[in-house]
Amino acid sequence: MLLRQIQYFMAVAESHHFTKAAKQLFVSQSALSQQINKLEDDLGVKLLDRISHPITLTAAGEEFYRCAKKILSDINHLELQMQHYARDNQGTLHIGVITGLGKLPLTDILSKFNTEISPQMQFSLTNCLSKKLCHMLGNHEIDIAIMAVSDDFPTNDFEILSLQHEPFLAILPAAHTLSNNTQISLQELETENFIFPTAENVSYDVFMAACLKTGFTPNIVTYCNNPGQRIDLVQSGLGVSLISESGFAYFNNHADVVSRSLTEPLYKHIAMVRRREEKQPPLVDKFWEYIRINYGQETI
Predict the structure, then answer these.
(1) What is the pLDDT of residues 274-290, one digit of tens each?
(2) Same domain, yes or no, for 77 and 8?
(3) Are 260 and 172 in contact (CB under 8 A)?
(4) What is the value of pTM for the model shown?
């Protein structure tokens, strides 16, 4: 059994189609089929039900898939760990970052770190929503994530260094009856139409939990992750929304949209996150300690 055969099997198992898997792997369909046939012959079991459309896994195939997925993850982890040790304090640190970092000066932080601590270190930045970054972190696709975290974030698997708590604001048309208030409670918005981020966004969880705690389920008429577009939708009269303080300051260009603080504040909790490991790679440790000393609030 070869690693290549495992990878070929996984491609077919996940696409449920030989042609699609072959295209993904940049191999011919016949070569792919031959390798999987050889794998099944070596194991003495059938892994795929080729009669069904789309292709499904046999019971043995299901078990093989579960084990193979862990094997490939372990191999990827092993390769990354060895790369870290080989590079020591040189090389590339892979960081996942959300777009909305509030007042956190990430570019200045990276520049100062290079100048003051490790001139030879390089950074590779990936921009995604926080939940996607958490998934990538768990799969060893990135080394560190700077992201929004919710109150129920899984601290058993990840270590969290708090960096910033930024308040969320209620935004509504200037002509709204509540716009004359200096502060607004969520209870006052109970009957409003809401514009929410999607469920893939941590802010969705924060907003939904706050509304439910207040005693109502929000009437969500539109989902939108882009802060600027949420402001546009509020301006059009579609509904009200919540947005971070810095997001409103940066994206708002409408005189007829106003923001108001909440009587019971909600916060966007920005943190740096890494996997909990007995021994951290040198690159990760060095950057983590630099941020902890210069920008950190608390470690969880």
Answers:
(1) 999 878 888 888 899 99
(2) yes
(3) yes
(4) 0.65
- 210 in Cβ contact with 186 (< 8 Å): yes
Q: Do 262 and 169 share a structural domain?
A: yes
Q: How confident is the model at residue 86 (pLDDT cuts 50, 70, 90)?
A: low
Tally the domains of the chain. 3
**Cα separations in angstroms, 242 against 17, 52, 176, 233:** 43, 48, 15, 12
187 and 169, same structural domain?
yes
Torsion of CA 139, 129, 151, 154, to 10 degrees: 0
Whether residues 172 and 214 fall in one domain: yes
Can you give the pLDDT at residue 300? 67
Q: 267 φ, ψ to 5°?
A: -130, 145
Instruction: Name the amino acid, one letter, at 253.
Output: N
φ, ψ for residue 73, nearest 5 deg: -65, -40
Question: Per this entry, what is the length of the chain?
Answer: 300
Query: Do 207 and 218 touch, CB atoms closer than 8 A?
Result: yes
